[in-house]
């Protein structure tokens, strides 16, 4: 169930995911948490200090009436967590291979994009950063027309190999990206699954071009995310002060130390490589791609280990881009746990930590007074759930602090 911009919603004695042994009374008004207070335990029945004078003796039918129905939802066995923030999605893509998307009609593509917004929200992701392929205009259209109030930050069209034509050319491309209203610029700094192993860490841009993009973006208050599998472009990213690096499976221990020092975020998007490595999995890719993905996945667990011991800021991201994956975003938590993060670390990377990476640490990613009421209500303890499948089935409702109109403008 989706609960959009609730006017008034109250929970009594609900548990907050990750906080042991406490219950909370939580109020939401106009889409924000207005009160989050630890529940005061009621005195056990029969031990009331005031001797029950107001209870007419011998007339049990005349007790105080129960709370008016509907005033509060019974929440004895519910947990609340902040809405999940996925820092790396591709909501506009419908196929692994872009050539396949081009074969679809525009109305079919749009319907699939609308479905991706819905599936992402229903699994508890209330905010996404799109890492390439969707413009703010399309986001507003989808939010309004399909009724899915997913908050999406975007980089519009990413800068890749076709743009490595010098700084003059890049200046024009950057102006086009800013004109769309994007808040981010995405740099494809290395190859990916399409590149052979011996070439995948080769820089796509010259160092001069790379520095130019970052400097230009920052001078225009635009943030920068960098796709890099590893190698020298991680060093460039740290030195230039980008906001986040993505994937980074060939990160070294030395780079992890400098990444931590610079406070650059690391969005590893680890689960997609395990999925891509499985020839019989949902992506069903050719064997040569599966082999590259398997090599990446193997390196990822090491890179995440280095990053964790160095104290790098982790950001949760999935890189999910097809109908078989949208809505399964919580699988990334399983992979992060498998690769050594604690539950608290994995959840922080997907909530308060991710909000800080977006520069929204002051109003997103926490169950706290004054914060936007983006939240998920669960009927199991999310910190005990065995797997993402259990988590998915335990969602009672997803609450979005903002309505479609607030996210996408009135018209
Ligand atoms: Zn991506």
Mean pLDDT: 92
What would CATH call the class of the domain at 154-359? Alpha Beta
Q: How widely separated are the two ends?
A: 25 Å
Pick out the low-confidence regions: 47-71
Structural class: alpha/beta
InterPro entries: Amidohydro-rel, Metal-dep_hydrolase_composite, Metal_Hydrolase, Metallo-dep_Hydrolase
GO molecular function, one term: hydrolase activity, acting on carbon-nitrogen (but not peptide) bonds
Pfam families: Amidohydro_1
Protein name: Imidazolonepropionase
Please describe what this structure looks like.
With 411 residues, this protein is an alpha/beta fold. Among the domains are: 80 residues, no CATH class; 206 residues, Alpha-Beta Barrel (TIM Barrel), CATH 3.20.20. It has 14 helices and 15 strands. The strands form three sheets. Strands 1-15-14-5-2-3-4 form a seven-stranded mixed beta sheet. Strand 9, helix 5 and strand 10 form a beta-alpha-beta unit. Zinc ion binds next to loops.
Short description:
By secondary structure, the chain is of the alpha/beta class. The chain is built from 14 helices and 15 strands.
List the helices and strands and how they pair.
Elements: E1 2-4, E2 8-16, E3 24-29, E4 32-38, E5 79-82, E6 84-89, H1 98-102, H2 106-122, E7 125-130, H3 136-146, E8 151-154, H4 167-179, E9 184-188, H5 207-219, E10 223-230, H6 232-240, E11 244-250, H7 253-262, E12 265-267, H8 271-277, H9 287-310, E13 313-315, H10 331-338, H11 343-350, H12 352-357, E14 375-378, H13 388-393, E15 395-400, H14 404-408
Parallel strand pairs: 1-15, 2-5, 6-7, 7-8, 9-10, 10-11, 11-12, 12-13
Antiparallel strand pairs: 2-3, 3-4, 5-14, 14-15
Helix pairs in contact: 2-3, 4-5, 6-7, 7-9, 8-9
The structure holds zinc ion.
Zinc ion is lined by residues 88, 90, 131, 319.
